[in-house]
Design a protein that fits this description.
Helices cover 34% and strands 29% of the residues. It is of the alpha+beta class. It has three domains: 2-83, no CATH class; 96-136, no CATH class; 137-243, Metalloproteases ("zincins"), catalytic domain (Zincin-like, 2-Layer Sandwich), CATH 3.30.2010.10. The strands form four sheets. A five-stranded mixed β-sheet has the order 1-4-5-3-2. Strands 8-9-10 form a three-stranded antiparallel β-sheet, with helices on one face. A three-stranded mixed β-sheet has the order 11-13-12, covered by helices on one side.
Length: 245
């Protein structure tokens, strides 16, 4: 935990949301003013977002500078989190999730007795915006994946003159995709959380199994021919797979 001494004045606390760039990657930064705090504090939350605590006499500008001075410390904490991810069992307003490769926060907009959760341009109706949002948001993400991934597979298959019999979108625990000898491609719905170039790599990877049903050197040459940046995509998955919910 990074810190800086400061003498506080105790009054009411408030909060705001910002983003912090860490090694070229933007992560959500919750700015919290805590009038009992004696110093600036920077913590990494289990969901991969950061929390900056500002004492009453501190300023947001100085707090931001403090956070930016400690990005190397934060990068090390992120690396540890990715190696041993701690997934929150419940999602609430303010929880950060990956969506299309970007960190977004769950936000609420109430409407009478019903509520709407918003993130990354998406809106999800939920019965209680103050309760656990995980189930409703995950169902929405899975639905998006089911609508978007199969057409991508068929488009790529047509472009590379391959025949795909069927595409399924599943909740695979340890695989991003699979391909059967009969031409069925199965994809993990969590690909909707990955950047488009990573999603495309997985699709192309599975399609190339229609040419080589193995992971031989010949197979990887096929992958490289259709996806020259496949190693970059693979590296992204290795570094961030623990953050996909």
């Amino acid at each position: 935990m990074a810190w800086f001494n400061f003498i506080p004045k105790r009054t009411e606390s408030d909060s705001d949301t910002d983003f912090l760039t860490v090694h070229g990657r933007q992560i959500p930064l919750a700015v919290i003013r805590n009038h009992r705090a004696r110093r600036y504090l920077l913590r990494l939350r289990p969901d991969g977002s950061a929390r900056l605590t500002i004492p009453s006499r501190g300023s947001v500008v100085e707090g931001r500078r403090f956070a930016e001075r400690n990005t190397e410390w934060l990068a090390r904490q992120l690396a540890r989190l990715q190696a041993n991810p701690v997934k929150p069992k419940q999602w609430f307003i303010g929880t950060g999730i990956l969506f299309r490769g970007e960190w977004v926060r769950l936000e609420a907009r109430t409407n009478g007795e019903t509520g709407t959760v918003q993130f990354g341009g998406e809106k999800v109706r939920v019965p209680n915006v103050h309760g656990d949002l995980r189930s409703g948001v995950m169902k929405h993400l899975w639905k998006l994946a089911g609508a978007e991934l199969p057409p991508k597979v068929f488009d790529f298959a047509a472009a590379h003159q391959l025949s795909v019999r069927r595409v399924t979108v599943r909740n695979q625990r340890s695989r991003w995709g699979s391909c059967s000898r009969r031409g069925t491609i199965s994809l993990n719905w969590k690909l909707i959380q990955a950047p488009p170039f990573v999603r495309d790599y997985i699709i192309l990877h599975e399609l190339m199994h229609l040419r080589q049903m193995n992971h031989s050197a010949r197979f990887w040459r096929e992958v490289e021919n259709v996806c020259p940046e496949y190693q970059v995509a693979g590296k992204w998955l290795k570094q961030n797979s623990g953050l996909l919910k």
